[in-house]
Design brief:
Length: 564
């Protein structure tokens, strides 16, 4: 509301001020542009405000909030950016303009992006944003600005452009900027946090089984309109699609709390948009899967799809949608062994996909033959070999010549006493076997008959007082399993005779009993993490930060990038 105030007085003339500062700034700049329309007409043609013009002088000395308003309005009026109209480069070189003035103009381009009309965001605007990130170290602020407009249909920098940009980077390059920049956004008042809250609090469609009502009463949606929680108002489908694309990319984060929150938000968002869900599966699991190449994203996207199908009771209410999604999952997750989203690469992805297939199979949406494709075992690519310790030391030195930390934060997870090696790698490989999956598992060697002739010789070698006790089949089998006890009660010759009592294992028994060396497996994991793109330059410093002082030894905490 306008109000009279001495703060806005100008001599003896009465003045009107606006309590809403940004609106006041807009009115002031519009008035100045109207007053200097001739200067603007010349600027439209030349792309520069003429030296000595009153408007140029006023803009050069304007406060930051007026600069923000001018940054929004001048592209609409002249078709040129404020920073270009002021010929910033020439002023900096010839007139000795302080660099702080350039910083103010670049910062204004970044901070006002969400206030602009989408059709006045041009390639030049994009170039200025890139310059702000590269030359003025505003990369975090630029990302915040881009996420602010992510859900605007038709916007040059919406989630579709974010998708293309992220696809143009390898997974490691992507994590080195997108992953790091978004890692802590869940705990900040950021555009991403607002998007998450908006998606979480969208009204549940009437046809979906109701959930307990959220505590919040009002929800702000992208696009600056308000709605009451629980109302039937839903965002346009294109807005929902763009929001989902942006949120799906947060599935790549090593921060499990961000992944968990985003997964639930995507489920709530897509309850009323089955076509958007199918489109996302086509986009990420099929069309762009090779470029996405991120197991975290594939896993959470399929899990979100399962969540939508379960929440909407698709088995009963939408059997055709369920069958359609099940076939998409079968084609993407279970067909191409070399595919980036193949089930053999991620157990959680396989589990979520199999749940969808089983749900569809129960309703007759997929045949027995189709459902069988999701059954274990799955073919997988060749594992390859692991380098030895000397090779690891040469490839991935722990410290540099000046004792600086290089690969220390990654390699520390794979030392002999490291928790990751002992509690993750070893329990996993203990279940591995060299026995082909097509071969029935043989009986254990200790259940096979003992060698009779060897048992007789062993019995005769024992003192008569203990012969009946130690030479029984039960005692012989127990001693064969306990080398320490053998040394306590038998001499060296008796131990050799005891060993001969054990039946010769079959080839199948040897393969089934062969253990995978946890040290070999740890070296393999380390080498593959490095081959996927972990380097000290990309992640060393950030992993040192996230790896220290983060809540002790409990398991449920945000991960380091090296762990991903």
């Amino acid at each position: 509301m306008p109000s009279r105030s001495s703060a806005f007085s100008c001599g003896a003339l009465p003045s009107i001020g606006f309590a809403y500062q940004a609106f006041s700034d807009d009115r002031v700049v519009r008035a100045m542009l109207d007053q200097h329309s001739e200067d603007l007409e010349l600027a439209k043609a030349s792309g520069v405000l003429q030296a000595g013009s009153a408007l140029r002088a006023w803009l050069a000395d304007a406060s930051g909030n007026l600069i923000d308003a001018a940054t929004v309005l001048l592209p609409e009026v002249t078709g040129h950016e404020l920073i270009d109209l002021l010929a910033l480069g020439e002023e900096t070189n010839e007139e000795g303009r302080p660099r702080s003035h350039a910083y103010t103009l670049y910062r204004s381009v970044v901070h006002t992006l969400g206030l602009r009309k989408g059709d006045h965001v041009t390639q030049r605007t994009v170039d200025l944003l890139n310059e702000a990130a590269a030359e003025w170290e505003m990369d975090q602020e630029v990302l915040e600005a881009v996420l602010t407009v992510a859900t605007q249909p038709g916007h040059r920098l919406n989630a579709d452009q974010l998708h293309r940009n992220l696809l143009s980077h390898s997974p490691a390059e992507r994590d080195a900027w997108w992953g790091i920049d978004t890692y802590s956004m869940l705990n900040e008042a950021s555009a991403l946090h607002r998007l998450l809250r908006w998606a979480e609090q969208l009204p549940t469609p009437d046809r979906v089984r109701p959930l307990p009502a959220p505590a919040t009463t009002w929800v702000r949606r992208p696009g600056a309109f308000m709605t009451v929680t629980g109302s039937t108002q839903e965002p346009p489908e294109e807005v929902a699609r763009l929001a989902a694309v942006a949120l799906v990319w947060t599935f790549t984060s090593p921060n499990r709390f961000l992944r968990d929150r985003a997964t639930k938000a995507v489920v709530q968002l897509l309850l009323g948009y089955p076509d958007v869900l199918v489109g996302l599966l086509d986009q990420f699991l099929d069309q762009d899967a090779a470029l996405v190449d991120d197991p975290y994203l594939f896993e959470r996207l399929v899990l979100a799809a399962y969540g939508v199908l379960a929440r909407t009771d698709a088995s009963r209410a939408q059997p055709e949608l369920l069958a359609r999604i099940a076939r998409r999952v079968l084609d993407s997750v279970y067909d191409n062994v070399a595919g980036a989203a193949h089930a053999s690469r991620n157990a959680l992805l396989c589990d979520a996909a199999a749940r969808i297939v089983r749900m569809a199979h129960r309703t007759g949406g997929v045949s027995d033959e189709e459902a069988a494709r999701s059954h274990h075992p799955h073919a997988c690519p060749e594992v390859g070999e692991a380098p030895d310790e000397n090779t690891l030391d040469a490839r991935y030195p722990i410290r540099g010549k000046a004792s600086e930390r290089l690969w220390a934060s990654l390699r520390s997870s794979f030392s002999g006493l490291a928790d990751f090696t002992n509690y993750e790698v070893r329990p996993a490989v203990d279940h591995f076997s060299d026995l082909p999956l097509t071969t029935p598992r043989p009986s254990q060697p200790d259940s096979a008959p003992l060698v009779h002739e060897a048992v007789v010789l062993f019995r005769d070698s024992l003192p008569e007082a203990v012969r009946d006790v130690l030479a029984s089949d039960e005692s012989i089998r127990a001693l064969l399993k306990n080398s320490w006890r053998q040394q306590q009660v038998l001499n060296e010759g008796q131990q050799q005779l005891l060993a001969a009592c054990a039946p010769e294992p079959t080839r199948e028994q040897l393969l089934a009993a062969a253990a995978v060396d946890k040290e070999w497996a740890s070296r393999w994991v380390l080498d593959n993490a490095a081959r996927r793109g972990w380097t000290p330059e990309r992640f060393g410093a950030i992993d040192d930060i996230y790896g220290q002082g983060r809540g002790g030894r409990e398991g449920h905490k945000a991960e380091r990038f090296g762990k991903k």
